[in-house]
Specification:
single chain, 195 residues, alpha/beta, Rossmann fold, Double Stranded RNA Binding Domain, 3 domains, two-stranded antiparallel ribbon, 6 helices, 7 strands, elongated, binds ligand PQ2, binds nicotinamide-adenine-dinucleotide, ferrochelatase activity, porphyrin biosynthesis, Met8-like, NAD
Length: 195
Protein backbone atom coordinates (compact mmCIF):
# COMPACT_ATOMS: atom_id res chain seq x y z
CA UNK A 1 0.00 0.00 0.00
CA UNK A 2 1.53 3.32 -0.96
CA UNK A 3 -0.08 5.24 1.90
CA UNK A 4 -0.84 3.24 5.06
CA UNK A 5 -1.57 6.35 7.23
CA UNK A 6 -4.98 6.37 8.91
CA UNK A 7 -6.63 9.81 8.84
CA UNK A 8 -8.43 11.19 11.91
CA UNK A 9 -9.77 14.62 12.95
CA UNK A 10 -8.72 15.62 16.45
CA UNK A 11 -10.67 17.71 18.97
CA UNK A 12 -7.93 20.06 20.10
CA UNK A 13 -10.23 22.11 22.32
CA UNK A 14 -9.98 19.25 24.80
CA UNK A 15 -6.74 17.36 24.00
CA UNK A 16 -3.82 19.20 25.55
CA UNK A 17 -1.06 19.82 23.00
CA UNK A 18 2.48 20.89 23.83
CA UNK A 19 4.58 22.65 21.21
CA UNK A 20 8.34 22.59 21.84
CA UNK A 21 10.21 25.28 19.93
CA UNK A 22 9.72 28.96 19.23
CA UNK A 23 11.23 29.53 15.79
CA UNK A 24 9.96 29.68 12.21
CA UNK A 25 8.75 26.11 12.06
CA UNK A 26 6.95 26.48 15.41
CA UNK A 27 5.16 29.50 13.97
CA UNK A 28 4.08 27.48 10.90
CA UNK A 29 2.67 24.73 13.13
CA UNK A 30 0.92 27.25 15.42
CA UNK A 31 -0.62 28.95 12.40
CA UNK A 32 -1.85 25.60 11.05
CA UNK A 33 -3.35 24.76 14.48
CA UNK A 34 -5.19 28.06 14.83
CA UNK A 35 -6.45 28.06 11.23
CA UNK A 36 -8.24 24.83 12.07
CA UNK A 37 -9.24 25.29 15.68
CA UNK A 38 -9.80 28.75 17.19
CA UNK A 39 -9.38 27.66 20.81
CA UNK A 40 -7.02 24.69 21.18
CA UNK A 41 -5.52 23.66 24.56
CA UNK A 42 -1.99 24.45 23.47
CA UNK A 43 1.05 25.61 25.40
CA UNK A 44 4.61 26.33 24.28
CA UNK A 45 8.06 25.79 25.72
CA UNK A 46 11.22 26.98 23.96
CA UNK A 47 14.67 28.08 25.04
CA UNK A 48 14.25 31.20 22.91
CA UNK A 49 11.01 32.40 21.42
CA UNK A 50 11.41 34.66 18.40
CA UNK A 51 9.56 38.00 18.39
CA UNK A 52 7.01 36.94 15.75
CA UNK A 53 6.12 33.80 17.70
CA UNK A 54 5.92 35.79 20.94
CA UNK A 55 3.54 38.24 19.30
CA UNK A 56 1.36 35.32 18.12
CA UNK A 57 1.33 33.80 21.62
CA UNK A 58 0.56 37.06 23.44
CA UNK A 59 -2.21 37.98 20.97
CA UNK A 60 -4.01 34.71 21.75
CA UNK A 61 -3.11 34.40 25.45
CA UNK A 62 -1.32 31.10 24.75
CA UNK A 63 0.64 29.97 27.83
CA UNK A 64 4.39 29.74 27.23
CA UNK A 65 7.68 29.19 29.06
CA UNK A 66 10.91 30.63 27.67
CA UNK A 67 13.38 27.99 28.86
CA UNK A 68 14.68 24.60 27.78
CA UNK A 69 12.32 21.61 27.68
CA UNK A 70 11.94 19.52 30.84
CA UNK A 71 10.35 16.11 31.07
CA UNK A 72 7.77 17.52 33.51
CA UNK A 73 6.42 19.68 30.65
CA UNK A 74 4.78 16.50 29.40
CA UNK A 75 2.50 16.13 32.41
CA UNK A 76 -1.12 16.10 31.21
CA UNK A 77 0.04 16.33 27.59
CA UNK A 78 -1.82 14.16 25.06
CA UNK A 79 -0.14 15.34 21.87
CA UNK A 80 3.29 16.90 21.28
CA UNK A 81 4.72 18.80 18.34
CA UNK A 82 8.48 19.22 18.43
CA UNK A 83 10.02 22.00 16.31
CA UNK A 84 13.53 22.44 17.68
CA UNK A 85 16.71 23.06 15.73
CA UNK A 86 18.70 20.19 17.21
CA UNK A 87 18.18 16.61 15.97
CA UNK A 88 19.60 14.99 19.11
CA UNK A 89 17.35 17.10 21.36
CA UNK A 90 14.34 16.26 19.15
CA UNK A 91 15.10 12.54 19.40
CA UNK A 92 15.49 12.77 23.18
CA UNK A 93 12.19 14.64 23.64
CA UNK A 94 10.51 12.12 21.31
CA UNK A 95 11.73 9.32 23.62
CA UNK A 96 10.21 11.00 26.68
CA UNK A 97 6.94 11.38 24.76
CA UNK A 98 6.96 7.73 23.69
CA UNK A 99 7.55 6.55 27.25
CA UNK A 100 4.36 8.44 28.24
CA UNK A 101 2.36 7.26 25.20
CA UNK A 102 2.05 10.81 23.90
CA UNK A 103 1.36 11.03 20.17
CA UNK A 104 4.19 13.07 18.71
CA UNK A 105 5.02 14.96 15.54
CA UNK A 106 8.63 15.98 15.04
CA UNK A 107 8.31 18.71 12.44
CA UNK A 108 9.95 17.86 9.13
CA UNK A 109 11.37 14.59 10.53
CA UNK A 110 9.14 11.76 9.26
CA UNK A 111 11.17 8.98 10.89
CA UNK A 112 10.41 10.31 14.38
CA UNK A 113 6.71 11.11 13.80
CA UNK A 114 3.72 9.12 15.13
CA UNK A 115 1.54 11.21 12.81
CA UNK A 116 1.99 13.79 10.07
CA UNK A 117 0.24 17.09 9.66
CA UNK A 118 -1.76 17.35 6.47
CA UNK A 119 -2.49 20.05 3.98
CA UNK A 120 -6.05 21.19 4.70
CA UNK A 121 -8.92 22.42 2.52
CA UNK A 122 -11.59 24.29 4.51
CA UNK A 123 -14.98 25.41 3.20
CA UNK A 124 -17.24 26.15 6.15
CA UNK A 125 -17.85 22.89 7.98
CA UNK A 126 -16.31 20.89 5.15
CA UNK A 127 -12.70 19.99 5.86
CA UNK A 128 -10.50 17.80 3.66
CA UNK A 129 -7.07 16.71 4.88
CA UNK A 130 -4.47 15.72 2.29
CA UNK A 131 -1.52 13.42 2.74
CA UNK A 132 1.15 12.34 0.28
CA UNK A 133 2.60 9.95 2.88
CA UNK A 134 5.43 12.44 3.26
CA UNK A 135 6.46 12.09 -0.40
CA UNK A 136 5.89 15.74 -1.22
CA UNK A 137 4.32 18.38 1.08
CA UNK A 138 4.55 20.74 -1.90
CA UNK A 139 2.30 18.48 -3.98
CA UNK A 140 -0.10 18.27 -0.99
CA UNK A 141 -0.21 22.08 -1.01
CA UNK A 142 -0.94 22.11 -4.78
CA UNK A 143 -3.75 19.54 -4.41
CA UNK A 144 -5.19 21.78 -1.66
CA UNK A 145 -5.17 24.75 -4.08
CA UNK A 146 -6.98 22.71 -6.75
CA UNK A 147 -9.68 21.49 -4.31
CA UNK A 148 -10.09 24.98 -2.85
CA UNK A 149 -10.94 26.29 -6.29
CA UNK A 150 -13.25 23.42 -7.20
CA UNK A 151 -15.55 23.55 -4.13
CA UNK A 152 -17.94 26.51 -4.09
CA UNK A 153 -18.33 28.31 -0.73
CA UNK A 154 -22.06 27.37 -0.92
CA UNK A 155 -21.15 23.83 0.11
CA UNK A 156 -21.49 25.14 3.68
CA UNK A 157 -25.14 26.13 3.02
CA UNK A 158 -25.74 22.64 1.63
CA UNK A 159 -24.32 21.11 4.80
CA UNK A 160 -26.45 23.35 7.03
CA UNK A 161 -29.61 22.50 5.08
CA UNK A 162 -28.95 18.76 5.14
CA UNK A 163 -28.18 18.93 8.85
CA UNK A 164 -31.61 20.53 9.40
CA UNK A 165 -33.35 17.90 7.25
CA UNK A 166 -31.41 15.14 9.02
CA UNK A 167 -32.93 16.26 12.32
CA UNK A 168 -36.47 15.95 10.94
CA UNK A 169 -36.20 12.49 9.31
CA UNK A 170 -38.17 9.66 10.80
CA UNK A 171 -37.99 5.91 10.26
CA UNK A 172 -35.28 3.40 11.06
CA UNK A 173 -31.59 3.81 10.27
CA UNK A 174 -31.79 2.13 6.83
CA UNK A 175 -34.73 4.33 5.83
CA UNK A 176 -32.89 7.49 6.94
CA UNK A 177 -29.77 6.53 4.98
CA UNK A 178 -31.94 5.92 1.89
CA UNK A 179 -33.62 9.31 2.17
CA UNK A 180 -30.35 11.16 2.74
CA UNK A 181 -28.77 9.40 -0.24
CA UNK A 182 -31.68 10.47 -2.42
CA UNK A 183 -31.66 14.10 -1.25
CA UNK A 184 -27.90 14.44 -1.84
CA UNK A 185 -27.65 12.36 -5.06
CA UNK A 186 -27.40 15.51 -7.18
CA UNK A 187 -24.06 16.36 -5.50
CA UNK A 188 -22.30 13.36 -7.03
CA UNK A 189 -23.63 13.99 -10.55
CA UNK A 190 -21.41 15.49 -13.21
CA UNK A 191 -22.67 18.63 -14.93
CA UNK A 192 -23.02 18.71 -18.75
CA UNK A 193 -19.78 20.65 -19.06
CA UNK A 194 -17.87 18.00 -17.09
CA UNK A 195 -19.14 15.08 -19.22
C1 LIG B 1 1.23 19.53 4.71
C2 LIG B 1 2.12 20.36 5.63
C3 LIG B 1 1.35 20.59 6.90
C4 LIG B 1 2.02 21.45 7.93
O1 LIG B 1 3.22 21.38 8.14
O2 LIG B 1 1.25 22.23 8.54
C5 LIG B 1 3.43 19.60 5.79
N1 LIG B 1 4.43 20.27 5.26
C6 LIG B 1 4.02 21.43 4.67
C7 LIG B 1 4.82 22.23 3.87
C8 LIG B 1 6.22 22.07 3.57
N2 LIG B 1 7.09 21.39 4.33
C9 LIG B 1 8.35 21.45 3.73
C10 LIG B 1 8.25 22.27 2.57
C11 LIG B 1 9.43 22.68 1.67
C12 LIG B 1 9.44 21.95 0.37
C13 LIG B 1 9.69 20.44 0.47
O3 LIG B 1 10.64 20.02 1.12
O4 LIG B 1 8.87 19.71 -0.14
C14 LIG B 1 6.89 22.61 2.45
C15 LIG B 1 6.22 23.39 1.32
C16 LIG B 1 5.96 24.81 1.60
O5 LIG B 1 6.14 25.31 2.74
O6 LIG B 1 5.53 25.47 0.65
C17 LIG B 1 9.59 20.85 4.28
C18 LIG B 1 9.55 19.45 4.74
N3 LIG B 1 8.46 18.81 5.27
C19 LIG B 1 8.83 17.55 5.63
C20 LIG B 1 10.23 17.39 5.37
C21 LIG B 1 11.07 16.18 5.73
C22 LIG B 1 11.14 15.16 4.67
O7 LIG B 1 10.42 15.22 3.65
O8 LIG B 1 11.93 14.23 4.86
C23 LIG B 1 10.67 18.59 4.78
C24 LIG B 1 12.06 18.92 4.28
C25 LIG B 1 12.84 19.62 5.39
C26 LIG B 1 14.26 19.92 4.98
O9 LIG B 1 14.55 20.03 3.79
O10 LIG B 1 15.07 20.02 5.91
C27 LIG B 1 7.98 16.56 6.23
C28 LIG B 1 6.62 16.65 6.47
N4 LIG B 1 5.83 17.73 6.15
C29 LIG B 1 4.53 17.40 6.36
C30 LIG B 1 3.47 18.31 6.33
C31 LIG B 1 4.38 15.95 6.64
C32 LIG B 1 4.03 15.19 5.35
C33 LIG B 1 2.75 15.68 4.66
C34 LIG B 1 2.47 14.89 3.43
O11 LIG B 1 2.14 13.70 3.56
O12 LIG B 1 2.53 15.44 2.32
C35 LIG B 1 5.79 15.57 7.10
C36 LIG B 1 6.26 14.16 6.69
C37 LIG B 1 5.91 15.56 8.64
C38 LIG B 1 5.33 16.80 9.30
O13 LIG B 1 6.06 17.79 9.39
O14 LIG B 1 4.15 16.71 9.76
C39 LIG B 1 2.58 21.70 4.97
C40 LIG B 1 1.71 22.11 3.76
C41 LIG B 1 1.26 23.55 3.92
C42 LIG B 1 0.12 23.94 3.06
O15 LIG B 1 -0.85 23.20 2.88
O16 LIG B 1 0.13 25.11 2.60
N1 LIG C 1 12.76 27.09 8.86
C1 LIG C 1 12.51 26.28 7.87
O1 LIG C 1 11.91 26.67 6.87
C2 LIG C 1 12.92 24.85 7.94
C3 LIG C 1 12.74 24.08 6.82
C4 LIG C 1 13.05 22.74 6.89
C5 LIG C 1 13.53 22.21 8.06
N2 LIG C 1 13.73 22.98 9.16
C6 LIG C 1 14.20 22.34 10.37
O2 LIG C 1 13.17 22.41 11.38
C7 LIG C 1 13.77 22.62 12.66
C8 LIG C 1 13.29 23.90 13.31
O3 LIG C 1 13.54 24.98 12.42
P1 LIG C 1 13.32 26.50 12.83
O4 LIG C 1 13.55 27.30 11.62
O5 LIG C 1 12.04 26.66 13.56
O6 LIG C 1 14.53 26.72 13.84
P2 LIG C 1 14.78 27.95 14.80
O7 LIG C 1 16.24 27.98 15.11
O8 LIG C 1 14.12 29.18 14.31
O9 LIG C 1 13.99 27.53 16.13
C9 LIG C 1 14.37 26.44 16.91
C10 LIG C 1 13.69 26.58 18.25
O10 LIG C 1 14.00 25.43 19.05
C11 LIG C 1 14.25 25.90 20.37
N3 LIG C 1 15.01 24.90 21.14
C12 LIG C 1 16.22 24.36 20.87
N4 LIG C 1 16.57 23.48 21.84
C13 LIG C 1 15.54 23.47 22.75
C14 LIG C 1 15.29 22.78 23.96
N5 LIG C 1 16.17 21.90 24.47
N6 LIG C 1 14.14 23.03 24.61
C15 LIG C 1 13.23 23.89 24.13
N7 LIG C 1 13.43 24.59 22.97
C16 LIG C 1 14.56 24.38 22.29
C17 LIG C 1 14.99 27.19 20.16
O11 LIG C 1 15.00 27.99 21.34
C18 LIG C 1 14.14 27.81 19.05
O12 LIG C 1 12.99 28.43 19.59
C19 LIG C 1 15.26 22.62 12.39
O13 LIG C 1 15.73 21.29 12.60
C20 LIG C 1 15.41 23.01 10.95
O14 LIG C 1 16.60 22.50 10.41
C21 LIG C 1 13.43 24.29 9.11
Amino acid sequence: MSNPLFPVFLKLESLRLLLVGGGNVALEKLTALYENCPDPRVSVVATRINPQVKEFLLARSIPFQERSFRESDLENTRIAVIAVNDKAVSAEIKQYCASRNILTNVADTPGLCDFYLGSVVRKGALKIAISTNGKSPTVAKRVKDILNESFPAEIDDVLNNIERIRGTLSGDFTEKVKQLNEITSILGKKTDTEN
